[in-house]
């Protein structure tokens, strides 16, 4: 079990597939009979996610993702349903085949400081993740680069702590990092693409494996950030 921990965080397996809207429709109709919908979702079972991703001039984060580095880190600031009052700084780490996620709250004012290059205050902040980001920003010159919007639909299966998500309607700001601007111009990427993600702890129950079969679909290395950067 200790081998699955990183800085006290339990690692999870995360599989991604790029599927079509028809695939999504078929899967949704199967999963809804066995899995429960995310209780935090709206009436239609979906919620909106907006994230700004950090990278540097050399596209370090994007390149490591594309080339499938076994050890890599990615920072982002995220909000849900455009609620500007509740933001989280998140760090996703990949170690071999496991994914680790750490997060902490961050205020809108703090994000704006980061966006404008005012980062000296982060060095001695009480939140370890803020200090971690400060180090990474100094070492690799990463900064907020691109805003990505999408709709997420979540199905949950408690045995194995399984989450199946469908991310669709992915939009990008190109290279605009104005996360908190409700009128930020967003451009649609590929309207036909849905990203299926399957996340679980130590095992995935056979019933979920069976339900998720879609012919010869193969595991991919897709991410919303990668998809968005294909368009600018």
From TrEMBL:
Residues 12-228 form the VTC domain. It comes from the Bacteria. It holds the Pfam family VTC. This is Polyphosphate polymerase domain-containing protein. CDD domains: PolyPPase_VTC_like (cd07750). InterPro entries: VTC_domain, VTC_sf.
